[in-house]
Amino acid sequence: MTVGFNVLEATDDGAAVRAVLVAEGRTDHPGVDWELAGRLGFEAKAGRVQVLAGDGRIVALAGLGPVDDVDTDAVRRAGAVLATALRKQAAVTVELGDAAGLDPRAAAQALGEGMALASYSYDRFKSDPDPSALAAVAVVGPDAPALSEGLARAARLVEAVRWARDLVNAPGGTLVPAELAAAAAAMAEREGLDAHILGREEIVEARLGGLLGVNRGSTQEPRFIELRHVPEGPSRGRVALVGKGITFDSGGLSIKPADSMVGMQGDMGGAAAVLGAMSVVRTFAPDLEVRAYVPSTDNMLGGDATRPGDVLTIRNGTTVEVLNTDAEGRLILADALALAAEAEPDAVVDLATLTGACMVALGGRIAGVMGNDDGWVDQVRSAAGRAGERVWPLPLPADYRRQLDSPVADLKNVGPRWGGALTAGLFLQEFVPDGLPWVHLDIAGPAWLDEADDFGPKGATGFGVRTLAALLEGFEAPGGTAAG
Fold first, then answer.
1. Active site residue 402
2. Prediction pTM value
3. In the annotation, is 256 catalytic?
4. Rounded distance, CA 284 to CA 383, Å?
């Protein structure tokens, strides 16, 4: 069930369920039994929620942390914990309270995102689902028009995130490449985007050797999804988005252990993020030309699967010795990056659940960001910060490139054990022409939750959709400063 939002100019005294956003030490909100809240131990720390009940009414207090630190991240989290605590309630009135001093549009958007994201559940295969009952949220705060705009933005954005989560959560044997392509084409038609879906024959014609090599062990045909948004008037730039679309990853002949295959339907989290962002590009970046490139296959162990030692030829003519078939995402991204570069965009960003090494470095909640242009890296980091998605910069050391040297091909697809996230980034950089600003986001950690958090249940997170929307909305053509 999706959450609907509306705005009230004043508190509804008759509301059966009332929620207030409260900063630490603030007890000046009327109609709240602060003595009871104190006896229950409520301290308004960020992420805390306390439900008070009496006389047939419910009052919920959501903590924002110290009053001087209240920002949109705190509001987003408060919205999330409220939605979880009140998931059995159909309608809630929320007062911005101590968040009312923030920009009202930004505060309302953050609140809406938090509440709607936390209300998500994936029930497609549940015989007896138990979704959140929360369907209507009335928001009270200053500047009703700005609040309405922020809530509308949140609703549009969360719709895209929820769709991305649905795609990633779908089992690998259900959402095969053809089904992913069909879903992308249907979205493109609905949103007024141009779509070009390449089947196997067109992929062969396009010389996408990395994608074909990974697909050799599968009985499912590959797809290459191209989507394009062209502004109706003048464009302020051209951006290419690239997403890894491995619909299930067994590891190929370099087979994964059984436990490591669990959740591998999530290996297309980058593709889902790109498709989700494209579904809202006309809302957040109508005057920007945006092209999306999504190569899609599963990685299986069929009788003609790519063998360790095989050599593949990528779209741009580069040859790659495959030493580990479980390092397959970079092979299909290589084709996509080479193809994206041919359209001469102002900048490129790719997203991929690429390496376990990035999770070793940054854990499961932070994406690694690498790139060849300082200004473009900074834009991506700033967009992620505004969206409330955490990223952290990692280097691309030039001297590590020799670790990918191959005795039989232009390069090999893996380096040594250590620094795997960095050598993966260096591999991808080989398919980006000099002078083209490019950023790589390794989202292996935050694309999937092994246990529920404030913003959703175990499984897909839709990480990257909000960052890309913010990035496209605020895009400025990079100046071309080489990253160190």
1. no
2. 0.96
3. yes
4. 13
